[in-house]
Amino acid sequence: MEKSDIENTLGTIKIADEVVEIIAGLAASQVEGVAGMSGGLVGDIAQMLVRGKNLSKGVKVEVGEQEAAVNLYLVVEYGVSIPEVSSKVQEAVKEAIESMTGLKVMETNVHIQGVNFRPAPEIKDEELPRLK
Description:
Layout: E1 3-8, E2 11-16, H1 17-29, E3 34-37, H2 40-49, E4 59-63, E5 67-77, H3 82-101, E6 104-116
Parallel strand pairs: 5-6
Antiparallel strand pairs: 1-2, 3-5, 4-5
Helix pairs in contact: 1-3
């Protein structure tokens, strides 16, 4: 478990990589058009076996002393502009990490792993045409 060290006059602040992953995951999942995060097949199976929500699912970070690089694995909603959603995710993640941790985000790579197709709307029985 790598930690980011920030020196100041009062001492050292250590930020665990997992904290940066959670910040990135939450920021990305709040962007409109993002259906969810993808941990890959192994990660998704592991998530099913473990109770609770994994807030860093689909996020990998490399944290140096003063900077971070982020890789996000996303599922987007069908019909959205993937480049537009990806760009908004990059901006949101960079802003969240830099404002909350003081780390400089060097790169935010977005990997689209899938598309979420919304289920067809349910038709109520009374809306079905009647045969005479």
